[in-house]
Amino acid sequence: MGINSNRVENFSGPACLKTTTGTVVTIPLDMAMPPLQVHKVALPQPRTTVQKLRHRLSEIFFPDDPLHKFKNQTWYRKLVLGLQFFFPIFQWAPNYSFKLLKSDVISGLTIASLAIPQGISYAKLANLPPIVGLYSSFIPPLIYSVLGSSKHLAVGPVSIASLVMGTMLSESVSYSEEPILYLQLALTATFFAGLFQASLGFLRLGFSIDFLSKATLVGFMAGAAVIVALQQLKGLFGIVHFTNKMQLIPVLSSVFHHRDEWSWQTIVMGVSFLVLLLTTRQISIRKPKLFWVSAAAPLASVILSTILIVCLKSKVHGIQTIGHLPKGLNPPSLNMLYFHGPHLALSMKTGIVTGILSLTEGIAVGRTFATLKNYQVDGNKEMMAIGLMNMAGSCSSCYVTTGSFSRSAVNYNAGAQTVVSNIIMATAVLVTLLFLMPLFYYTPSFILAAIIITAVIGLIDYWAAIRLWKVDKLDFLACMCSFLGVLFISVPLGLAIAIGVSIFKILLHITRPNTAVLGNIPSTQIYQNLNRYREAVRVPSFLILSVEAPIYFANSTYIQERILRWIREEEEWIETNNRNSIKCVILDMTAVTAIDTSGIDTIKELRKLLEKRSLKFVLANPVGSVMEKLHQSNILESFGLEGLYLTVGEAVADISSLWKAQP
Amino acid sequence: MGINSNRVENFSGPACLKTTTGTVVTIPLDMAMPPLQVHKVALPQPRTTVQKLRHRLSEIFFPDDPLHKFKNQTWYRKLVLGLQFFFPIFQWAPNYSFKLLKSDVISGLTIASLAIPQGISYAKLANLPPIVGLYSSFIPPLIYSVLGSSKHLAVGPVSIASLVMGTMLSESVSYSEEPILYLQLALTATFFAGLFQASLGFLRLGFSIDFLSKATLVGFMAGAAVIVALQQLKGLFGIVHFTNKMQLIPVLSSVFHHRDEWSWQTIVMGVSFLVLLLTTRQISIRKPKLFWVSAAAPLASVILSTILIVCLKSKVHGIQTIGHLPKGLNPPSLNMLYFHGPHLALSMKTGIVTGILSLTEGIAVGRTFATLKNYQVDGNKEMMAIGLMNMAGSCSSCYVTTGSFSRSAVNYNAGAQTVVSNIIMATAVLVTLLFLMPLFYYTPSFILAAIIITAVIGLIDYWAAIRLWKVDKLDFLACMCSFLGVLFISVPLGLAIAIGVSIFKILLHITRPNTAVLGNIPSTQIYQNLNRYREAVRVPSFLILSVEAPIYFANSTYIQERILRWIREEEEWIETNNRNSIKCVILDMTAVTAIDTSGIDTIKELRKLLEKRSLKFVLANPVGSVMEKLHQSNILESFGLEGLYLTVGEAVADISSLWKAQP
């Protein structure tokens, strides 16, 4: 069937059509067109309150229908599927091969070379002993490899969560004066973070992290990265006295008020290594195949700088080094958890904030790589895995861990096939913990600062911010709010403001929805916005309006006033242009996706008001849930059958034919 | 043109059609049908950021285009219109006639007979001296008659605002121990209420009161009415010691813990008058023509009970009466306003809460009667009028006033034509203040209690609550939250909880929107929900989905997962039913009224995912703002022209014809 052919409809056999030029075209039935016969607007199938509640709850908590695999299976199969559901290791372990292992060993060793220096650095960022960073790179990856469903997530400490934990705890407790209490609080916060994450997953409330929009996160990460990078000037410049605060102004003033403490040897070496690391990072960004350059650079720098310090130690003084690290595996730390006393609220709050942030990062990273390799990651299950991992971590001297974006990207690029790469990484950390700790004695602090700066600079995403500005000004505003909030106020408040702006945006869209006058596109049944489609023309005697939002208490007054204003403006236009006056107002309800009792009252009132002006008022295409509410509120009786149409086209055709019949 | 006739489309002249039965029907062009020619989806007209911002701001702040009357007018006319705009009295005063005056005098005297006893009672409800209630029925109506645009609003103290003011202030300051401070705070709160109301109007933020949904208000009013009615048992039972608190439990325990103070004479007389008042109220409800029965009843009861007490005063003792009231007009009270010191925050808070509540009542009442008589009330202007009235009131010994629902209804039924009825009422109050005050000396307290109970019982709207339950369970939940919150927690917290529930409801609708599979209604171009329309049939090889909400950060993950689940379920259905497999997924975007950057990413990702499964993914009918965002984010380039269609019907027709052309 060709383009531009003429068609007919409502035939009992293939249609044949004689055009004005005399040719007869036969048209297959499935392309036929609507008759003037008016279609009834159907009510959705009647459901009881319990059924509706059940449907609603299942959409809220089980939108992905997680149990669909279990349907119509034998008991044995259900058991196997259940085991695989809770322990994804059973899914891939039976088919694990030597070839997969080879890839996983390579990628596991690669991320280990990144994880060891980063672990030490991030622990310092959280004001914790460096060894805790290594402990946190050992137990959690092992637990995740049993419970996690992402194949590419590289688990361990991450910069944002470390930073936030460091900030929030050190506002109340000094890590230098009360190191034991500080460590206790950090472990307790980790426990609460894990408990919170696991509960979110278990209660299937995973969607709550969706309220941290990408725009908010872009701003938050950039703000945190700026603060962290500036704070690292402490290590890079060799400053001894430094603020505990995390806002821009105290940090900057700390840097410049202690100029007497700046050590030029530290600065020269630190900046050189920083330039080296940033260069390797740029190389890997430009040529993704050379990912191993930036992956190997931190460990290489650590080794190089340590050798340098060992060689120079007799000549150069005053360079801070890591110093003694205890050999041996994670000590148990259940007795360190702190469930009473004055700081309990603080550690709960810190746990919840770091829990949310690390969860957001972990889930986002997992989803990103799952999409790239076309497999599914169940958000709620991942939350439970990450949560249990942190709860177990808090009992074995680990602080908050999650899937790190930078290391997962390296893992992916190095060819990781399964979570076994995490096991390999943990083994490498194990070897380090058992045998290599003395080697870090002379590792200088500036190299850790340089590693952190290189890592966090990647979190500043100018392009995303520019894109936000281009596409959505209010998203950009949310982004800037969280950026500036983190820089100048505080991490939790900055986040809260940004979430507030995001929700305000939703409410604004609802409070002031678009309304438009529709016109007919000639020789079609299509009715479109007159402002947008130049070919659309007004239908004489009709005013066709569309409302592009649910009608709620928050906008019902606005919609009523706006519709009356449209009518007034249309009448003025008609007067100046000498056209037929309006006789009927059609409200296209296609985009009115919900209605509440205030909205129903608005519809009723509009009908009354327009009736008084002897204008007919009809609704076109109310969606299922709206139709149900209209029915329940008995408003349909007042509209009757003549007041509801399935499409605007049918409404126009039917009402005009009525007018022709009864002039 | 008859029903069921056959039609053709895309002709250059009137179409003629030969049906299978041989008859030829001529069809006018405007009823013609769409050709297979595919319509392009238009971009909205390009606008700069400033233009968009201007449009957005004018929709937010000036949706009613308040200056439209001023367009194309001479300077003199503009001046006159401006005066009329700010002082509506200039609109009706020139045409005021003796006939209108007659109606207004009758209605003014009727509401005065209601306003005097109610004024005294409501002042007691706010723990203020009774005379303040009369002062508040004198100055504010006069100011409103100059500034207000409603013709039927009867201005004066109202029960809800009085109750809330009494509750909030007496939680911190005892009205019996520090009456002067209490009065100062009440007047200051009135000033802040007025300032807040006038600012809302001036800044055109009137829409903010829309966030108090009807459901919330129904619950709030009922809760407040229950508390107030129970509190009046103090007067009705003659109890002397009573709690200052406003929660259900302390009030009830106060009533029953002081049984020794119950005075049987007071109870007998009080309950008799209460029954009388309730009976007259029922009569007026059943027969609206007899509105004067309930309108006159309070004053009649006051007179009757006062005479009764005067006659019985030698025989019955211990009945509380109003006592001495000072004669004379409102004393100035500018010096009583309290702008410093420890209670400033309290009076600001009280002012804002009472301001919002009285504004909501005043605007709702004004709009109701304006709708009945088919004239417009400008919300923002009304707010300024009510606000200025309260600010002026606070300087002349008046407390918070607004348009009262009960008195306005009486005013309307008594035939009020303009705000002159308010002037008449004020004059009647003036006469009372100057000459009749001594007559109230023996007026018993129980009659005030009975009047208040009768008035607030009307605020309990069972039927509205039942209707909420029937139509919208979540609205009912908001209603119950505010009801129980007010009863058991506190007035501001109850309101806050209810507003929270209402906003949560909006967010829930956005977070978990409806998605549906559409099917074609045979021999039409209509595509509708398969579940709702039994006549709709699946289109082979297509999966047509519609999403009924804007795609935002808060739902983008859900929508992506839900769409993938629809595809999975459809594929399972196809497998079990041996049908053609899906080759194309069409997303009907008609009801996607907005999109943000997260939403755009979701669309991109879906396209990638479906391409990997070799499924075509196209969008149908994106609305203007969505189209604009898609364009700005360069996503349209990846879709190209073949990925966007104006209607689902055109998408199906075009893609199937492509498949036929390239099998």
From TrEMBL, chains A, B:
It is found in: Membrane. Its main location: membrane. One of its GO terms (cellular component) is membrane. Keywords: Membrane, Transmembrane, Transmembrane helix, Transport. It is a multi-pass membrane protein. GO terms for molecular function: secondary active sulfate transmembrane transporter activity. PANTHER family: SULFATE TRANSPORTER. The lineage of its organism: Eukaryota, Viridiplantae, Streptophyta, Embryophyta, Tracheophyta. SUPFAM superfamilies: SpoIIaa-like. Gene3D superfamilies: STAS domain. This is Probable sulfate transporter. The chain crosses the membrane at residues 75-93, 128-147, 154-175, 181-203, 215-242, 262-278, 290-310, 414-440, 446-464, 476-504. Pfam families: STAS, Sulfate_transp. Residues 532-655 form the STAS domain. It comes from the Eukaryota. InterPro entries: S04_transporter_CS, SLC26A/SulP_dom, SLC26A/SulP_fam, STAS_dom, STAS_dom_sf.
